Amino acid sequence: MPCYSIEGVVPVVDPSAYVHPTAVLIGDVIVGPECYIGPCASLRGDFGRIVLQRGANVQDTCVVHGFPSADTVVEENGHIGHGAVLHSCVVRRDALVGMNAVVMDEAEVGEKSIIAASAFVRAGMKVPPRSLVAGVPAKVIRELSEEEIAWKLEGTLTYQDLAKRCLAGMREVSPLPQAEADRPRVKAPEVLPLIAAKRN
């Protein structure tokens, strides 16, 4: 993985975490156990510290950065969807930040909350625990159901499993010229999108 020190401060990655080779870690970045960092994610600890606690995931093309002397923290089981941006904020335990959402300076995403895809969480906003938040600017829509909180945790556990799968079996290869007749499928655990889970 591209990993850079700055002024002698070197990123830290727990051996049980998986960081994709195209992700970039710079400076004061601490990646805890069982975390997953996806392709093309950028974690820039060249101003403030970035901390990912146990089991957090930061998916492909996410950007994590912050002001000097400010920590950007994703607590245990935090779940950061594709393309999201976190800047000098805190994402509390078991919370989810949806795809392409932005969480700004000094904002705090409460425990077990969900920030909807493409939401803009303004600077200083304090999202209550167990809240669904959506919109530009983001507003609290309602309290989450137990079913929705359980669905979120299931997705996060799938990413913790993905970290293990990647450490064990992801390798750089050359592509095949065509698909095999008996082409295998990857052995991912089954998890449904929330809309499908609610239908069942």
UniProtKB/TrEMBL annotation:
Keywords: Hydrolase. Its EC number is 3.1.2.-. The keyword Cell cycle does not apply. The keyword Hydrolase applies. It comes from the Bacteria. GO terms for molecular function: hydrolase activity. InterPro entries: PaaY, Transf_Hexapept/Carb_Anhydrase, Trimer_LpxA-like_sf. NCBIfam families: PaaY (TIGR02287). This is Phenylacetic acid degradation protein PaaY.
